[in-house]
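Work Package 3 (structural annotation) set out to generate three-dimensional models for the target panel prioritized at the project kickoff. During this period the team completed the workflow that converts sequence records into discrete structure tokens, so that structures can be stored uniformly alongside our sequence database. As a representative example, we reproduce one entry of 298 residues exactly as it appears in the project archive.
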Amino acid sequence: MAIDLRQLRQFVTIAEQGSYRRAADLLHIAQPALSVSIQKLEHAVGVPLLVRGAKGVTPTPAGQALMADARRALFHSEQARQAARRVALGEWGLLRLGFVGSATYMLLPRCLPAFRAEYPDLQLDLREDSTIGLVAMLRANDIDAGLVRGPLAEDAALDSWVVERDDLILAVPAGHPLASGGPVRLERARAENFVLYSPLKVPGLHGVAQALCRKAGFSPRISQEAIQVQTLVSLVASGMGLALVPGVTRAYSTPHVTFVPLADADAHGALSLSLVTHRDTSCASVLRLRDSMLSRAG
């Protein structure tokens, strides 16, 4: 006959209280029903576990041997219950979060410290990749959510929320004529070479940059393509051309590059960082991260 946790809890309570009556009161059970339950436990074990005496109810030697294991079983069952509950509530476990490199400039430093302080028992596994790579990882269930550059194509399997908006700005070599004043119109750079995002690896940023140039009346002359924003800035510093980069790139300080605001209206708010998840995800920790980031959206 199997032993269940309810019987172990009743046995431990009686032994600790030294009384069936007091134990029955604490357990909110009728004393006769408690006695029957303990009899079934003793039958399952095969030996008497409790004995009534002048000083109340005390464990037999067999009962004393059972007590330590019973307490451990009750402890671990409660731990398991709490762990399952906290995972279901998104307060414990592992959250696999992918991100594009530019999310490290402002978004992650702004949002993650508060999120980790609120959920200290939730372990974050952070993985950097391109937007296309992150979407592929999400589809393969290698990550639970991704911070990607928009705009994103419509996808019936995914949900996304904009958690940061940003302007496009112009990165030029230090000392370049366009670096000497304030905001400039992009059309003034029409004769320049450009370092642009790879259309295969970073199609969103590539498309936005191309569209802004077309709106300014020219098609950019591309001297080099790259994937990471930091790489574009380094190539600008190396004299390979100008680059259109997110405004947060100003955090990537270098004496060899000047970041110039654009006067073009379409450059303002042209970019977004979005949190992307599986549609109707049941991962509570992802939903907690979403709510935390949306509350601090910039």
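The longest strand covers residues 158-166.
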